Amino acid sequence: MPFFEDVFTEIxxxxxxxxxxxxxxxxxxxxxxxxxxxxxxxxxxxxxxxxHAHDQIDLFxxxxxxxxxxxxxxxxxxxxxxxxxxxxxxxxxxQMLITAILGYLLAxxxxxxxxxxFYVAAxxxxxxxxxxxxxxxxxxxxxxxxxxxxxxxxxxxxxxxxLLMLGVAAYGENTGGRHFGWGMLEIFSRGAGLxxxxxxxxxxxxxxxxxxxxxxxxxxVLFGIAWAIGLASLGMELGFSKEVGAFIAGVSLASxxxxxxxxxxxxxxxxxxxxxxxxxxxxxxDVTHLGAAIGPxxxxxxxxxxxxxxxxxxxxxxxxxxxxxxIMTGLTLGQISEFSLILVLLGVELGHIDAQVQGLVTLIGLxxxxxxxxxxxxxHHLYEWLxxxxxxxxxxxxxxxxxxxxxxxxxxxxxxxxxxxLDPYGRNVARELMRRGVHVLGVDFDPEAVRLHHEEGMLTLxxxxxxxxxxxxxxxxxxxxxxxxxxDHDTCSVLLHxxxxxAYRGRIALTxxxxxxxxxxxxxxxxxxxxxxxxxxKEAADMLVEQGEDDAVCN
Length: 555
Known about the structure:
By secondary structure, the chain is mainly α. The chain has helices spanning 7-27, 32-43, 54-74, 78-109, 114-125, 129-138, 145-172, 180-204, 206-213, 217-237, 242-253, 259-283, 294-318, 323-331, 338-349, 355-377, 379-390, 424-435, 447-455, 489-501, 515-524, 532-554; strands spanning 417-420, 440-444, 459-462, 481-484, 507-511, 528-530. The chain has a six-stranded parallel β-sheet, sandwiched between helices. Helix 7 packs across helix 8 and helix 13 crosses helix 16 (355-377).
């Protein structure tokens, strides 16, 4: 008997528990993802088992996954592929091959059969797009260099895991005498047909349709959702996953001028629906096969949590990137993917493996997703802990990051003002200073922003405020003013600490959102604290009053 009489009440209770658990998680400064998974465990059969609206929760979860991959596709910049395609390809393919080989050998050493070892190794190979994108977005690092490289690696992994699942399915269906090669040829034919269809529609039909719909933004967003879910459904009908279809839908709109408004308006709906994905993960935990799997799960989880990041660090390092970039990239990939759970479920359905293997992979997923969430959130702290040992190995070396702008220790010269953050506010402050003849150096961790402002004639440098090594390359001796246009409490605190640590003697101007934050920064040592919204409002009011007085005099 259901605990509640209707589905509506069940969903209401789930949302209330998620909100409460989320508030507790924020208070304890813990990842929201872990809190939502715990909600799923609480309401699922493992604990109270009072939720039976499984079909509805599954539907919401699938819609959330589809919209997430759609938004990821929308943000796929062709320039990003050209710039970071090689490092993502090398790191992605290299990590998958090494993980698969070592994972297989490790599984065989634990006494698993070749087929079981194959599935376990494959499950360990891939990382979670959903987890990583969500956490990087929450940290505002999705556009950072390490975030872009990680997304590139994830795209390559997603393509690989889809091909693997299709190959496994074709192999499993090879019971009626059909040759495996013909099955794969059919799969690739379907994929080519899907891409051709999307290309034709995008080229000849979408421009006019989008131009018409853009007159009403709500219709434009509605079309975006329909387009994403429609292609996701078509992808499933053709034998692919819904994630592939949704991703292709996003890519098809990525080059249009409407992607920004669609992305912005879908953010809230995406996050709401993803909540059900994490809850659903907790609801479907099967504890009947977890007991015997604890030992192997801990060993294999340790391999994923430590081994995969180290592989990525080594491979990105081989491409010449600095320690900060490679470590921050590696730390994002220390978990298995939601696709791993789907893959082992497919193996169970095909009779290749049993439910015990599914329980093992599920437990590995819980451990790695939970621990890696903390690794991603506290990645800067981990890097700061490691940098004293790492910095000595690369001091003075040239890295691809140095080529993102035109500023590096050899040619920076005398700089009067250093400004961190090249968002619209920081960019306009820099332009006004340059218009007054001030020599400005702009610093940002978004490679596209660095390139854009470099092309506009600004002296730019790629860098992250939370990277201690960055300050060794800054002309702090010549700069008389350091400005942070980033109104983030932690970022401003880190910048203040770094400047004091390097004995900076000039003035420090920071940015805050509130009077309380302003008072804290002034007390911490800032000379000036800007309140962009309040300052802009005051200037606007003064202009309006002055204009009114002038009109009165004229009349």
